Amino acid sequence: MKETDREAVATAVQRVAGMLQRPDQLDKVEQYRRREARKKASVEARLKAAIQSQLDGARTGLSQLHSALSDVRDIQRSLADVSKDWRQSVSTVESLRDVKDAVVRHSQLAAAVENLKNIFSVPEIVRETQDLIEQGELLQAHRKLMDLECSRDGLMCEQYRMDSGNTRDMTLIHSYFGSTQGLSDELAKQLWMVLQRSLVTVRRDPTLLVSVVRIIEREEKIDRRILDRKKQTGFVPPGRPKNWKEKMFAVLDRTVTTRIEGTQADTRESDRMWLVRHLEIIRKYVLDDLTVAKNLMVQCFPPHYEIFRNLLDMYHQALSTRMQELASEDLEANEIVSLLTWVLNTYTSTEMMGNAELAPEVDVGLLEPLLSPSVVSELLDTYMSTLTSNIIGWLRKALETDKKDWVKETEPEADQDGYYQTTLPAIVFQMFEQNLQVAAQISEDLKTKVLVLCLQQMNSFLSRYKEEAQLYKEEHLRNRQQPHCYVQYMIAIINNCQTFKESIVSLKRKYLKHEAEEGASLSQLSMDGVLDAIAKDGCSGLLEEVFLDLEQHLNELMTKKWLLGSNAVDIICVTVEDYFNDFAKIKKPYKKRMTAEAHRRVVVEYLRAVMQKRISFRGAEERKEGAERMVREAEQLRFLFRKLASGFGEGMDGYCDTIVAVAEVIKLTDPSLLYLEVSTLVSKYPDIRDDHIGALLAVRGDATRDMKQTIIETLEQGPAQASPDHVPIFRDIVVPSLNVAKLLK
């Protein structure tokens, strides 16, 4: 207490010191004293109230404790009285055991009396129930079956309560009602038969299906009631619980599975389209069945059965199982496509699960895949492998068929523009189109893979095509009489190259959305090169055919016979024009190059005739006559090739100008100007060589050895530079070495 007083005094001193820090605060001492007095009075009042409240609570608690003690003592005395009475009544309870047994027997007899009518009428009820089942009166039959089961279960339950160990009486009751289980099984069989035909029954007689569902619902309620009673008594009647609702869904599941499996009417041996038919039947059946279930069956079942959702799951699972079975078979390529198209596209399309009739109950976005990704991938790998083999075989067969056409006695067909062609490009790209259309039905990724595969195989095929075209040309050159329509079919082969190029571009544009597929682009570049090579070889072969016929007439050029009036150039022009009438059936890109090549080659052969010194002019008159003839023939050739090149544009006249330029050198009458004329010729044609100049001077016949040597040496000192647009023509002309040696003498 002293310590507390000291702390209180110290606190008060500190507080007063805080109040009286300035002289002017002394005037307020009385005011401070009154304020502190009020605070003290308030604190004391609150303290007194708190203490009073605690005293009142303690007083109440003590009162309640005294009352509780009194109650405990009263209970103790009552328990003592009860214990005393119980000890006194033990002997009385033992004396009432006979009464207890009598009560039990009375209960059994009461149950027997209650079921007496049913007990004596069991055989009759069994017969009536059997008749009702056979007549299809399922609800009435079930009502009587319930009466039988109720009597049996009631008697057995009482017997179990009286003496659960007495199996003899339980067996006696069970055997007396033995027909009841048979009736239950027979009725269940009828129910399952109705459920198996439920999709038909619901359209013809929905009442029957409703009756079946009502019976199942009754049995479910009885099962629940018996299971609840089991918790109290421990007794369960024989055959319970029946679980008919669970069995109903099992029956429906088996029915759905059987219906899906039973749609295969054909095999591959009997019908090549067996799988397509099988899948189409499944599609139709499933769509029809689910539509009926959605519109009619849901009205026959309680909502908590969720019959449509359960049927949808059953059909989906049955379809998945069936698709797995089909996928595991040894399917052909077209069958794999049919299966994958159906699984990946048809199943979720508006033709099936996405049909408006099934919305909104069926959400295709929530359906699980019918086949796992690994199975789909395996099928696609198998398909690509099989397709590769098939394409190789188809291309080989197409080429063999085309080769047989090459030796026919009749000309090939022409397209709408009159160009010769064979059926090979159409067959090849029709095959590609069919496979790409099929692949597109499955997925964009597969379509791209098939396109790349087609282009790759096309690349290999074109190499074989080139080899066969080369062999065809070589065979003909060995015997030019065979085949009869060689020229026409070689033209068709050339045109096929252009058709192939156009078809490849069209195919890529149609089926390749992005040009990013590097493999496809590289394949096209490679194929374009091969096709151009085939066309070039074909054109070369046709020109070889032309020049074989022209050989005799080309050999007459620049000879004495030619100078005296040979019609060799007339024949050359007629022959070339005649051939080019056939070559008109060549498509424009190749025909233009072929016309230019023919023009160049005729001029080269003409100049070669000059350089071979078949003639040496004897005088100025003879040189003039020969030169003028050369100019006339150059114009004749120019006119011919202008006519042949009509529609191709300009740029081919320069070849004939070379003949005119050579003729000018020959025609020159003043030998002193010969160097200047030759220099002009060399400046125009920088590819002309010394041996060409020597041969040309030898043809003139008036140039001395020194003159030849001087001209050649002078030209060698300042070789002419070729212009960028110069087309070499003399480089292909070889001057015989014997003639060159003679020229320098």
Automatic annotation (TrEMBL):
InterPro entries, per the entry: EXOC3/Sec6, EXOC3/Sec6_C
The entry's localization annotation reads:
Cell projection, Growth cone; Cytoplasm, Perinuclear region; Golgi apparatus; Midbody
A Pfam family this chain is assigned to? Sec6
The biological process GO terms on file are: exocyst localization; exocytosis; protein transport
Query: Which controlled-vocabulary keywords does the entry list?
Result: Acetylation, Cell projection, Cytoplasm, Exocytosis, Golgi apparatus, Protein transport, Transport
An example of a GO molecular function for this protein is: SNARE binding
Superkingdom: Eukaryota
Q: Name one GO cellular component term.
A: growth cone
Q: How does it assemble?
A: The exocyst complex is composed of EXOC1, EXOC2, EXOC3, EXOC4, EXOC5, EXOC6, EXOC7 and EXOC8. Interacts with EXOC3L1. Interacts with BIRC6/bruce. Interacts with MYRIP. Interacts with SLC6A9.
Q: What does this protein do?
A: Component of the exocyst complex involved in the docking of exocytic vesicles with fusion sites on the plasma membrane.
Q: Which family does it belong to?
A: Belongs to the SEC6 family.
Identify this protein by name.
Exocyst complex component 3
Organism in which the protein naturally occurs: Catagonus wagneri
Query: Taxonomic lineage per UniProt?
Result: Eukaryota, Metazoa, Chordata, Craniata, Vertebrata
